[in-house]
Amino acid sequence: MKESDIEQLLKAARAAREFEDELAPCSRESSLARLDPSLTRLDPSLTRLGPHTQRSVVAFRWVASALAACIVVAVTVILWQSRTTVPEASVAVKPPRQLPSQPVVAPVIDDQVHVVVALYRNDTNVNENCPECWCVARWSAQWSDGRSIYEVQDDELVGASMAHACVLDPKQVVVVGLSGPASSMPASDQQALDLSLCLMGEVPATPQNCVPAGVDYCMASWNTR
Amino acid sequence: MPEPKSELSLLHERFGPGLVRHFQRRLSSASAGRAQGGDLAEELAQRTWIEFWHANESGAYDPKRAKPSTFLYAIASIIWLRSLRERGRAGRIGQLNSNDEWISDATGLDTAGALELAESIQAISDLVAGVDATAPFGDEDRQVLRAISQEKSEREIAQELQISPSTAHQRKKALLERVAGFLTGRGFDFSPVGRARPGSSDEERTSSTP
């Protein structure tokens, strides 16, 4: 092997580490949650990994899935009913609202605050990179069963976001769950938008550079096809 | 009583959404078009899992030699590069970066190549992390290797170690030679010139050169 091969291998090793961070349901900065390499090999101890495999997952997931399904059905019915009564002209592309800066009061659990950021678009040009086409909603992440952001499933995040949609008839939704020190949370909708666009790859940066140190995130998305 | 989930389905559950996100990010960076992004990202992720499954089922993949996430990275890389080749996108997105070109040449874009890439990455990652206690590399060596992986210049390495740039150059060169010798001694010979699986006999060696 040549020196140049070793250099390339080193770069590939770093890329593999970044890839592993990207794969995790919620990226974690702390060493506590970084998987012990021996645990990620294919062996029986794999079943003991992560907080969500230590609980009675089946029951939680049934409840969470049923709740998410109810929320989605309820919001769909409400949107459908409003669709039949609202004149077509007013369902045209609604300009994103002005981005306010009011704080979001987030629950503090174990010195960490949990916030959900959701972006919505109702235009059909979803292949266009268009920051101004998104409207932003933020709310505190109160998971009543005491789960942390790392234990939340993608479909649950998306389901919860439907209740906070800031446009009629969203065609694309991106949801980001954040957990970290209060001082590191986005303080305004603009900051939340910038962070989310960064995580979506709309700006040239690795996911680790999009969120402040010490902040963990989950991301899910949905769009009509 | 419900059957316990297989290790593979647990891995898929844990890493599946992240893998789709990975390809979505790659596609949006390559400006491949968001309209295609969602479907194509899922298709690429699916192909990655299929190759992973085949390698696992056939026994070719040994989890003791590379973590599942490392092997997934290697497969995802070749799947991505294959898709660029198939769709002829390389021209549209400009040149591949040097690491992509090297991976393409070194792996031959096949699963066997991905396996060797993953094992080589694991070996060098363990070396840099100091996991391998028998590896004759000190803390400063590992610091230099980390700096190289971060593509720092020799001047930056010199500043970190508080040495002259020429000394940094010599030290880097010597260190890379030592690492190459160490890995070759462990049976790794992963390069575009030729590769062999550690412990394989001469008859089993395959060369990627035409």
Global structural class of chain A: alpha+beta
Low-confidence stretches of chain A: 27-55, 86-102
**How is the quaternary structure best described?**
heterodimer
Count helical runs of chain B. 9
* Overall 3D form of chain B: globular
Shape of chain A: globular
Instruction: Kindly state the number of beta strands of chain B.
Output: 0
- Which runs of chain B of at least 5 residues are low in confidence (pLDDT < 50)? 32-36, 90-94, 195-210
Helix content of chain A: 25-40%
Biggest β-sheet of chain B, characterized? Answer: none
User: What is the helix/strand order of chain B?
Assistant: HHHHHHHHH
Mean pLDDT across all residues of chain A, rounded? 69
The secondary-structure class of chain B comes to mainly alpha
- Strand element count of chain A: 5
Q: How far apart lie the N and C ends of chain B?
A: 54 Å
For the largest beta-sheet of chain A, the strand count, sense and barrel status come to: 5 strands, antiparallel
Strand content of chain A: 15-25%
Characterize the structure shown.
The complex is a heterodimer of chains A (225) and B (210). With 225 residues, chain A is α+β, with helices and mostly antiparallel strands. Chain A is built from 5 helices and 5 strands. In chain A, strands 1, 2, 3, 4 and 5 form a 5-stranded antiparallel β-sheet that branches. In chain A, a hairpin with a 2-residue loop joins strand 1 (108-109) and strand 2. Chain A is globular. By secondary structure, chain B is mainly α. Chain B is 67% helix and 0% strand. In chain B, helix 1 packs across helix 3 (68-87), helix 3 crosses helix 6 (111-129) and helix 8 (154-161) crosses helix 9 (165-185). Chains A and B meet through helix 1 and strand 5 of A and helix 1, helix 2, helix 3, helix 5 and helix 6 of B.
